[in-house]
Metallo-dependent hydrolases, subgroup B
Amino acid sequence: METGHLIRGGEVYDGSGGAPRRVDVRVRGGTIAEIGPELPEQGEAVLDASGLIVTPGLIDLHVHVFSGVGRWSIDPGDAGLVTGVTTMLDTGTAGALTFPAFDRFVLSQAREDVYALLNISMIGCLQGYPDERPYNIGELSEPGYAHAPSAVACVEQFRDRIVGLKVRLSALLADNQAQNERAGLEALLEAAERTALPCMIHHARSLVPLGELLRRLRPGDIYTHLYHPHPDHGFADDGTPKPEMLAARERGVLFDVGHGKGAFSWAVAEAACREGDFWPDTISTDLHHFNILGPVFDLPTTMTKFLYLGMPLPKIVQAATDAPARAMGLGDRFGRLLPGRQADITLIRIERGEWALPDVLDEMRSIRERLVAVNVFKRGVLHGCRS
């Protein structure tokens, strides 16, 4: 008889956003074989999950893992299984000129399932040394870098890896020229239409007005860095979402956290969530070299921030499992605990105590509960996590 694991006694959150159930999960042959109460042992190793929550493998919708190119990226392994993340999306670190190397040397070597958004800029996202200029090597500093035909050709070559496209709209990355930012946006939307893929927009300190951008986005497109602290975010001082934000959400545009080094403010998030009732569709880290040691750390820590804000735990789990899977067009493979699915499972402990948790402005909040990944299954193989 083939052996596997029986995860027993945990509080199971299936990723749907519904209430948890106290059931067991049987893992066999790399898949979820059975879910139900008090399942009998069938020769498996029993993993006692008492006191833990059991979730689908966490999915980080926003990371930078093109390690070895520039100063920006980290290894997929540093953002992955050791943090409870089984699947991740690199968001535009590579462009058409660099993606073949990204696929050959990084994506194909990762233990995690790693997918990508292709940067509309041919050179991708490069970062220099923080104490030398140019610190940001602007992917839109020349409008010709935003080249839809090369992006379309790259997508067609790597359809198994590329699930969408990305542009970063910030004046600093576009030589402070609004026309360069708009060239990037136009090329992005052209390539997205021609490939029938969604796109993700980074928009902060941009010369393109927020309303102008949001009107161009289509159902399934993703606006990231939702709670950034810069003046062109989407909320009034009291947290009320601007009308164009509400119209975009009604139209089916998705809103992603993308915490990053400069894109999550406690003040903005508290007002937007608690007063404006504008919660994220997806919770992601924007994890990279300059924030992995703080203020981001990992995806469970970012999820913890929304536990503090008052988001119900089933919705937090959904925003880090099923919702990002569907945003990537992979909802039939990842993001839910269902029999027959690939056995990607994360076990999380809710720790109670008192800790200070920073935002990107080094503002602190005192929290009394935090989420910590303990173990993770990837394709049915058990791994330990780094606290």
Notes: Residues 275 and 318 are 22 Å apart (CA to CA).
